[in-house]
Every structure is written in C-alpha cells, then in structure tokens.
C-alpha cells in the first residue's frame, strides 16, 4: 500500500498536481505512523515466547505493515535451548523493526539452516537495501550476537538485501 501511494504521489508531482500529491504524502505519513505504533505495541507485548511463537508474532507484525513474511526450515529451531531461543528472538525482533522502519520491502523471508555445528539464519527482503556497506549497519544486532559468539554478514546490500547470521551451536548459553 505504501509503495502504491508513494508512486502515486510521485506521479502527481510530475503532473504538477501539488495539492493531490500533498494529500497522498499526508496519507503515507499516517499509514507509516500507524504501522510503527502497531509495531511498538506488538513489541512491547512480547514477553518470553519460544521462537516458534515469536515467528508467528513477527509474521503478524510484518503483515500489519504490509510486508509478506515467509519462514523456511523452522523445524530446525524446535529443540534449541530456551536461552538461545530468547537471544535469537531479540535478534529477529530487531530485524523486523528495521524492516518496517527502513526497508520499504513488500516481502521478506527467513531461512534456518545448519552447517556443521552452526545455525545459519538467512534473511532476505526486496526493499531498498543499503546505499553503502561500511560495517556500521545493524549495530544492535551485532551487539546481541557477541555473547553467543555469533556473526552477521551482509551478503547482498540490495536486490535483494540478504543478511546471514551464523551462531555456533557448541557455545554454552
């Protein structure tokens, strides 16, 4: 919805219909504020959910913001220790908040995989991505990975944006 309204506002501006474009931009601001209020409310209501419950909550949050969300291989996280699930939950919440705030994505997906003793979390969206990758992106997620010796790599900065999180499973949490 936001993409359509943005394109409409741009077209109206190009046609010189300033007042109509202003109305569309005002509507966009309201939609954005409402979406962020919904995101904040949902995030505030989140307590100690297991990771599967959290994924359902994130799906609802993202869909409220107009973003289709898909999770692949979530059966791999069923038996993770609850302490690790809690840490992954916080990382995924942060990613979801960034998706809504910054990406302008219409779709995103999270894929869980195992590689030897590591849990891989691959995130992908079709949003605007990063203009430059200078190492300071997603700082709070990197901070959350430190205690569990995890790593985050931006695989692709756009078209699609792809981020991989690697968490060693032998780390005691």
UniProtKB/TrEMBL annotation:
InterPro entries: HATPase_C_sf (IPR036890), Sensor_HK_TwoCompSys (IPR050482)
Gene3D superfamilies to which the protein is assigned, alphabetical: Histidine kinase-like ATPase, C-terminal domain
Gene Ontology terms describing biological process: phosphorelay signal transduction system
Alphabetized SUPFAM superfamilies for the sequence: ATPase domain of HSP90 chaperone/DNA topoisomerase II/histidine kinase (SSF55874)
GO molecular function, one term: kinase activity
UniProt keyword annotations, A-Z: Kinase, Transferase, Two-component regulatory system
Protein's recorded name: ATPase/histidine kinase/DNA gyrase B/HSP90 domain protein
Lineage, uppermost ranks: Bacteria, Bacillati, Bacillota, Bacilli, Lactobacillales
């Amino acid at each position: 919805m936001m993409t359509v309204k943005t394109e409409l506002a741009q077209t109206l501006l190009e046609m010189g219909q300033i007042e109509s474009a202003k109305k569309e931009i005002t509507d966009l601001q309201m939609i954005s504020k409402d979406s962020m209020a919904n995101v904040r409310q949902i995030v505030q209501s989140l307590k100690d959910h297991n990771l599967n419950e959290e994924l359902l909550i994130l799906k609802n949050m993202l869909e409220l913001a107009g973003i289709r969300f898909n999770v692949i291989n979530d059966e791999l996280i069923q038996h993770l220790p609850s302490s690790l699930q809690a840490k992954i939950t916080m990382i995924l919440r942060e990613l979801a908040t960034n998706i809504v705030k910054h990406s302008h994505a219409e779709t995103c997906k999270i894929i869980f995989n195992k590689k030897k003793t590591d849990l891989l979390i691959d995130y992908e969206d079709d949003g605007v991505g990063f203009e430059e990758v200078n190492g300071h992106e997603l700082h709070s997620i990197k901070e959350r990975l430190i205690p569990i010796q995890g790593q985050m790599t931006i695989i692709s900065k756009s078209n699609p944006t792809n981020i991989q999180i690697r968490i060693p499973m032998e780390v005691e949490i």
